[in-house]
Amino acid sequence: MDTNIDRALFEPVERKSGTEDEIVRPSVTYWQDAWRRLRRNKPAMIGLTVIIIIILSAIFVPLFWPYDYSTQIRGHENLGPSWEHPFGTDSLGRDLFIRVVYGARISLSIGLVASIINLTIGVLYGGIAGYIGGRVDNIMMRIVDILYGVPLLLYVILLQVVLEKPIEQAFETTFLRALKGIGSDLILIYIVLGLVYWVNMARIVRGQVLSLKNQEFVLAAKAQGASGWRIILKHLIPNTIGPIIVTVTLAIPSAIFTEAFLSFIGIGVSAPMASWGTLASDAYRGLRSYPYLLFFPAACICITMIAFNLLGDGLRDALDPHMRK
Amino acid sequence: MDKLLEIRDLHTSFFTHVGEVKAVRGVNIDLYQGEAIGIVGESGCGKSVTSLSIMGLVPSPGKVIKGEIYFNGEDLLKKSEKEMQKIRGNKIAMIFQDPMTSLNPVYTIGDQLMEPLRTHKNMDKNAAREKAIGLLKEVRIPDPERRLKQYPHEFSGGMRQRVMIAMALSCQPELIIADEPTTALDVTIQAQILELMKELKEKFNTSIMLITHDLGIVADLCSRIVVMYAGIIVEEGSVRDIFYNPKHPYTWGLLKSIPKVNMTSKERLVPIEGQPPDLLKPPEGCPFMPRCRYAMRICEQQCPGLYSVSGRHKAACWLLDPRAPAVEWDREGVSFK
Amino acid sequence: MGRYIIHRVISMVLTIFFIVTITFFLMHAIPGGPFTREKPLPEAIIKALNEKYKLDDPVWKQYLDYWKDLFRGDLGPSFQLKHRSVNELISLGFPITARLGLVSIIFTLLLGVPMGIISALRQGKWEDYTTMFLATLGVTIPSFVLATVLIYLFGVVWKVFPVMSSKLTRPIEYVMPVVALSGYSLSFIARLVRSSMLDVIKQDYIRTARAKGLSELKVIYKHALKNAVIPVVTYLGPLAAGLLTGSFVIEKLFSIPGMGGYFVNSVSNRDYTMIMGSTIFYSVLLVIMNFIVDIVYVLVDPRIKLVNVKEG
Question: What residues of C are in contact with residue B115 (Cβ under 8 Å)?
């Protein structure tokens, strides 16, 4: 031991009390915190950027592009990619780039509309099951279990066959005539995909509601005399929003994929404005001679799927750290 | 008595992406044959890391960076993984904190209990089974034949910890390291498990290293206590020394946080205020200084060495320096004199 | 265990009942009946057809008749292909589809599980990055895109594998369809196993196993592996469903005369009995698969028994 230490050092230290534990940290809201976490996630930000680029091009490119999706340019049939036609042209001399851009409109709208329908059904179904609980919950979730066990794609196809005519008729006779430009096929796919894939959403919402249901703010709302519906809409759903956003983000690419899959086997959208799946399917026949016709729509499908998946994974980490694997 | 275990200047660090966390910073511990020693401290003080260092099981990114651990005169840190495997479970066995998660859920108790026997003692299935049944009897698990075929989830927490003890005993090790063996259990079960360990220790004359944050449970089982704080030993001595003549303010804090049976309502449990230091940047001075009511200016500048109090009772505190003001401890409070 | 099985059998029967009922009534909800064409058939023919297929009977009677036939294992006649029954079409196509599916499942498991394990054990090393990069591509690239890329590169440009796999008689014909069909599930399983393995090796019981002095090999292959593959078992049901429906497009692209092709054709041709029959066949098949998977699950994970008995 060092014996040459100054005696003065053995004086007690004067201490202000209560300073040790002071933690200075600005308080951030849940959303600010989530956004901060998301921003730090590089793959997710790349995904988000790609999605924004695709959406912007789908909206704005047709406004200034010299060709239309149906313009057939004589003498420009089956051209490879060039400055004039970045993605080349098809056998009818149509500019593939603008067709892919319109395909983005179709495919993205399918993903979006189908997911919104899924969301609505899933949130209502899962919310009600979780909120009421007991026997109702039991039966409702048994049904969900049954749906989980069946190959849903088959029922997408089945519903397509079943609803085809009623929807066509609705287009002829009702106010939906105004929407004719969109095509009944497209509406059909929106509805069918929307009707089938809500099961996952319902499960997640129910789980969230169950865990939140007995928390104090719900009790407080009840004590103030709020009705059941009001509790679901005002209190439960906003608090379940994180996992729901993640599920929706991941549902969009799977709807896009399902539509592309159906188009590829020849039972999807057959509108003048082709979806990516239809474009890829059409190009498959000429694969040997014109592989680029297949390459561009296929690449778009892949890139979109990857982008949404990266964003979805990032959102999962950002919004709900508990869901992190 | 022979020295069974001798830890010399052990340093173990975790190399995380934010930097080196120095979890153990120069620990010396001696353990004699048949002795039970308690290592006490808050979570994060390095007591578990010390025990894992002995076993050679420091999880990545952790690493022993300096020191020697002599077991029966041989340095464990110089042994190969193969040689260590022959020691683990055989010569040194370990009991972990949470019996609910320490047993593999997909294998039967029997299977897991027989594993060390089959590995280390080359027993065939029947011999191992017989021995396993004997071990379950030893730890007072009724109906051992049936219990052997059951899975961990069919056992309660206390029962599982008994299984863990049976497993640790199976190869009759010279040393059992018990890392918080009762923390996850109900108080009544805690007492039973401690009683069992005490009994078995007597019976098999095994040395025990009991790691805990609870000074209360040490007294019963151990003859010596080592108090750790922030990766170093701050005080060590016999149970009598530590309970009746503690010298380190941290030990005082620990003692004051143990509830007493005959406490009056005026007496209160006193928690130790503040947090242990960040071991990413361990302080130059005494690590306890920021939380110490008796801190002096020297404490901030230089870490005290171990002062010998009497015999094997030592404490690392500047208050023991003759130049320091005299501070006396008693259970009711500490007073300057 | 016995109680659990009874429980599961009851729920399986219920599921099958719902599937048949829903499918039947959906198909019968189509307005105009199965013989409505762009160019209407003569009234007399429709009448004769309706009579032949008993479509004039009240719906509930048709429903009961359908059940009666089902119990005899008869899915009825095809409406579009004359003199063919749905059973015949299924027995023609399904063996080929089943072969493709079986090989794909084996391929998926034999490759996906080790990929996940290696990735987890070499976390942060190049093996991990490579595997996870491939797996991320695998779960996002649709099977038909993968299939066309394979066909174009290995079939057309380099001519390594036959493009038309015809009846899958030679092993080499399996290569591309199997790879294309398993791409997604293989990647999914690799990711699943990796994350569950990473989770498992952090568990206390792995530390216990090490503290017992077991060799690293034994720790990983005995104690970690069994726990890590449990999630794979739960994925086997969806895996089978994915492979079955995935085969629609793969069979089309590789011209494999399996059941997927028949099914897709029946949809394009609006062959209602065939659509209904195939849907029921596929669904029931998968429900039974799920049942088997659940039983396997109980055998692998002893904890399940207790949970379900408590619930039931």
Answer: 209, 212, 214
SS3 (DSSP) at B271: coil
- How many angstroms away from the CA of A23 is the closest CA of chain B? 12
Bridge-based pairing of strands B313-315 and B327-330 is unpaired
Other CB atoms within a 10 A radius of the CB of residue A239 amount to: 15
Cα–Cα distance, B314 to B312 (Å, whole number): 6
- What percent of chain B is helix, strand and coil (3-state, nearest 5)? 35, 25, 40
Higher pLDDT, B1 or B34: B34
Do residue B88 and residue C215 have CB atoms under 8 angstroms apart? no
Find all residues with CB under 8 Å of C98, minimum gap 6, and list them: none
Give the ipTM of the model, two decimals please: 0.86
Pick from A139-153, B153-167, C154-168: least confident: C154-168
Q: What is the pLDDT of residues A57-72, one digit of tens each?
A: 999 998 988 888 877 8
Contact C300 B106 (CB under 8 A): yes
Mean pLDDT computed over B288-316: 87
* Residue partners of B19: CB distance under 8 A and separation at least 6: B280
Distance from CA of C221 to the nearest CA of A (A): 22
Number of H helices, E strands in chain B: 12, 14
- Are residue B138 and residue B235 in the same domain, yes or no? no
Domain count, chain B: 2
| pLDDT at C308 exceeding the cut of 50 | no
For residues B132 and B156, membership in a common domain is answered with yes
Q: What is the mean pLDDT of residues A27-47?
A: 81
Considering chain A, what is the average pLDDT of its residues?
82
Q: Are B49 and B62 in contact, with CB atoms under 8 Å apart?
A: yes
Tell me which chain C residues have a C-beta less than 8 angstroms from the C-beta of B57. Answer: 207, 210-211
Q: Do residue B297 and residue A10 have CB atoms under 8 angstroms apart? A: yes
A35: confidence class by pLDDT, cuts 50, 70, 90: confident
Are residue B243 and residue B188 in the same domain, yes or no?
no
Tens digit of pLDDT for each residue in B262-271?
666 566 667 7
Distance CA B32, CA C146 (A): 67
Structural domain of residue B98, as residue ranges? 3-222
Domain positions in chain C: 102-258+293-300
CA–CA gap between residue B59 and residue B57 (Å, rounded): 6
Domain boundary among B222, B246, B263: B222
Question: Which of B222, B245, B270 delimits the end of a domain?
Answer: B222
pLDDT at B267: 61
Torsion of CA B105, B110, B116, B122, to 10 degrees: -140
Residue appearing with tokens 């005369």: C257
Short-list B134, B133, B139, B176, CA closest to B160: B139
Which residues are CB-neighbours of B202 under 8 A, at least 6 positions away?
Answer: none
Partners of chain C (3+ Cβ pairs below 8 A):
A, B
Distance from CA of C237 to the nearest CA of A (A): 8
Mean pLDDT of C56-80: 86
Q: Are residues B120 and B267 in the same domain?
A: no
Q: What is the CATH number of domain C102-258+293-300?
A: 1.10.3720.10
B101 plus B158 within the same structural domain: yes
Output the domain CATH number for residue B79: 3.40.50.300
The mean-pLDDT minimum among A15-29, A268-282, B40-54, B179-193 falls in A15-29
Give the tokens for residue A164: 């085809």
Check if the beta carbon of residue A200 is closer than 8 Å to that of residue A206.
no
Task: Give the least confident one: A288-292, B139-143, B170-174.
Answer: A288-292
Q: How many CB pairs under 8 A join B and C?
A: 78
**A123 neighbors C260 (Cβ within 8 angstroms):** no
What's the average model confidence in pLDDT over A34-45? Answer: 88
Residue C224 CA to residue A108 CA, distance in Å, equals: 42
Highest mean pLDDT among A181-185, A284-288, C90-94: C90-94
